[in-house]
Amino acid sequence: MTTIADLINEIEVQLLHHYTQPRLDTFSATLTTASTSATMSTTDTLSPGAILDCGYELMYVSGWVEGSRTATLLRGLFGTTASQHATTDLVRINPRLSTVAMLNAIKDELRSWDDRVFKVENLTVSFGASDHGVALSPAADPYRILHARPRPN
């Protein structure tokens, strides 16, 4: 199944195939939501004013120490939310299009579609530990259920 992340990567490849791709790196240690600095794994040069795109967060580099490869960061840039990032998460440096911009464009497009084409609804159903099935109301069309998951109590 294609995920939103797969779709964003494909959009980036298609839109930017004539342009230089952004530099990629990773953080050398996990970033918490409160981290205001990060050490890059391989990048030796990064200048203040650079934008880092990791996951669905944008970060502004306000300072850079070249010898230690440490960036001072302003987190949650342009309305994004500071989040935790693992050392395996790719960091895109000065991307031409941010992941957030592509995700917002996809969301805007889906919202513009007629409800008969695409509509997201939440339906809460309850059942006990000994139940083997759930009786859905007539309003819940089981043919339209694309994804269902249990929600913890």
Written account of the structure:
By secondary structure, the chain is α+β, with helices and mostly antiparallel strands. The chain has 2 helices and 6 strands. The protein has a 6-stranded antiparallel beta sheet, with no helix packed on it. Strand 3 and strand 4 (57-65) form a beta hairpin. The protein starts with a helix and ends in a 41-residue tail after the last helix. The model has no long low-confidence stretch (mean pLDDT 81).
Summary keywords:
153 residues; 18% helix; six-stranded antiparallel beta sheet; alpha+beta; extended
Alpha-carbon distance between the two ends:
28 Å
Write the element-wise H/E pattern from the N-terminal end onward.
HEEEEEEH
Q: Outline the low-pLDDT stretches.
A: none
Q: How many strands appear in the DSSP assignment?
A: 6
- What helical percentage do the residues reach? 10-25%
Quickly describe the structure:
The protein contains two helices and six strands, in the order αββββββα.
How does the SSE layout of this entry go?
Blueprint: H1 4-16, E1 23-25, E2 37-39, E3 51-54, E4 57-65, E5 70-74, E6 91-93, H2 99-112
Antiparallel strand pairs: 1-6, 2-5, 3-4, 3-6, 4-5
